[in-house]
Amino acid sequence: MLLPMTSGAPDLSRFRADFPALARLRRGRPPIYLNNACVTLRPRPVVEAITRYYEAFPTCGGGRAEGVRHLHSWFGEELREEEERAREAVRDLLGAADVSEIVWTRNTTEAINLVARGLRLEPGDEVLGSEGEHNSNLVPWLEVQRRLRERAGDPELVVRRFFDLADDGGFDVAKALAAIGPRTRVLAVSHASSLDGSQVSDDVVRALARRVHEVGGVLLLDAAQSVPHRPVDVCALGVDFLAFSFHKMCGPSGMGVLYGRRAHLDALEPFIVGGDTVADTWVDAVEYKAPPGRFEGGLQDYAGMLGARAAIEYVTKTVGLDQVRAHDLALNAYLTERLQPLECDHFWLLGPRDAAERGGVVTMASSVGAIVNAIEREADERHNLMLRKGMFCVNAYLHRRHDRTGTASNNLRASVYLYNTEAECEVLCDVVEQVVKNPLDHLDDE
Ligand SMILES: Cc1ncc(COP(=O)(O)O)c(C=O)c1O
Q1: What is the pLDDT of residues 171-208, one digit of tens each?
Q2: Is the residue at 112 inside a domain?
Q3: How many other C-beta atoms are found inside a 10 Å radius of the C-beta of residue 276?
Q4: Does residue 8 sit within a domain?
Q5: 413 lines ligand 1 (CB under 6 A)
Q6: pLDDT grade for 407, boundaries at 50, 70 and 90
Q7: Ligand 1 midpoint to CA 176 (Å)
Q8: C-alpha torsion sign, points 433, 435, 440, 442
Q9: Substitution candidate for ligand 1 out of 104, 108, 195 with most atoms within 8 A of CB
Q10: Is 57 found in the same domain as 31?
Q11: Is the CB of 134 under 6 A from ligand 1?
Q12: 429 annotated active-site
């Protein structure tokens, strides 16, 4: 007898009740949300924390000069207390040595831009990444290259170099290590890919850190796809900078973090400057605050800070990151076992074959754009099932690998998080199976 396939994922279904969006109905059905690599849903404690700011102390945290407590204001003092606790929560989440190493940003993109604009790079210095970096970890460095070319008067100057990923899109540590050279000032790599979820293991990160430090460079980890899904300890990994966003871990949109080792933050030039970044000003001079204040220009997203802390609390304590990780892997193993046998000349999966190397992500691709469109449409119209189609901001890699075959943008990504269930994954697999096995039945309006 053929036993039904089960994922063996830890049962986290009790947490579903915390997510108001999961209680919505369209055409009598609830949503199936599998676009978590982009933005996750938010649980009630996070929404309540955000609302608490607006209801209880909707003021500014002003005068955040280091060590100066000059607020004599009821709401201001309460807010300041909340702000400090939120920063402490991020410090603990990342295992950072000190709260001054935690800079609030709007998102991962802004965090990487702070580093790219703040490092004092010179013509001759090089920035290294893989061929598969997200645009947010590519474009800021191309912008550095453009500026250094102008400065050097050399339009051919190469600042941003890249190394190849493995044939299956996984991280190739040998190629990465071999690419680090005496001119490498920055190694900026993603910890997990937004395209296919492929992961860089902790051992590999440590080896990269060691090597780039040997040549006097720094390691920046784009952790947008890792911090929400697994424990990350910046000290144990030896990273110098790390960036992530809260909207991928149950937190508010427009809230992110730059972690920087204190000595590196001290050496970084401020980028967005003005109110709140300075200790004092004169008509012709400025004295900047110490980090992190000097990097946090203007009135901050205080509601976002409260929401960020609530999200950390929820993901790490209420649920637990080890549980989240085990759940991701189990659901991905289920999806992969069901979808891999469907592979054929017009349908395949991207990334490493082993689901355990892809976190909570499975990305389907097709030689026929209409097949990907049909899966997305049927999933949406019949099941309220939400996926993400396109290039996932990894255009450069997809162009390089797939332009020749014309399939660069025919990708459809399913990404799971703690509230997803095996039954939801089963719905997706059934839709894919129907479309891939009988494409002509599903392409009628293309
Ligand atoms: C690997 C990676 N890096 C960077 C980003 C950019 O994140 P944000 O839009 O929050 O700045 C993303 C977003 O999907 C990502 O997956």
Answers
A1: 999 999 999 999 999 999 999 999 999 999 999 999 99
A2: yes
A3: 19
A4: no
A5: no
A6: confident
A7: 21
A8: positive
A9: 108
A10: no
A11: yes
A12: no
Q: Is residue 45 part of a domain?
A: no
Q: Which domain holds residue 17?
A: 13-39+320-442
Burial class (CB in 10 A: 0-12, 13-18, 19+), 380: middle
130 CB within 6 A, ligand 1: no
Domain count, the chain: 2
- pLDDT tens per residue, range 99-143: 999 999 999 999 999 999 999 999 999 999 999 999 999 999 999
Q: Are 383 and 427 in contact (CB under 8 A)?
A: yes
For residues 367 and 294, state if they share a domain: no
Candidates 300, 233, 244, 291; CA nearest to 83 is 300
pTM of the model: 0.97
Q: Which of 263, 284, 316 is the last residue of a domain?
A: 316
Separation of alpha carbons 406 and 190, rounded Å: 26
Sequence letter at residue 272: I
Task: Tally the C-alpha atoms within 13 A of residue 201's C-alpha that lie toward its C-beta.
Answer: 8
CATH code for the domain in which residue 54 is found: 3.40.640.10
Domain end marker among 266, 295, 316: 316
pLDDT of residue 269: 97
